[in-house]
């Protein structure tokens, strides 16, 4: 789709899992650092075009009471990943949630499952998404890029 036909006020950028515990962690996504420059470029472009930015993050209870059962063993003694308030749950260096952005905490693997993302998108008049990031080390893009 040509950029002059995109409706930027109906587009949102979903930035997924750009947290310290996901980017560079040998356990989760050591190669995710490769995509950081492209994610930064997408965020910068979104800011230039006044595109709504949604930061999708995971933040868990230190005791793992809100994680999947098969991950509970990671949370013995408060040592799990993406613990709310920890350095690991923070966005990686160079990324910042700014005024007008939205922070969406996802409880599981997907930003689309068991979250209020649909309500946020509908309530903001969003019809197109650009999705970047993800702990699977791939840069995902769709629509109006």
Automatic annotation (TrEMBL):
Highest taxon of source: Eukaryota
Gene3D superfamilies on file: Isochorismatase-like (3.40.50.850)
UniProt cross-references to Pfam families, sorted A to Z: Isochorismatase
Domain Isochorismatase-like intervals: 11-134
Similarity annotation: Belongs to the isochorismatase family.
PANTHER family (UniProt xref): OS02G0276400 PROTEIN
Protein name: Isochorismatase-like domain-containing protein
Organism whose genome encodes this protein: Rhynchospora tenuis
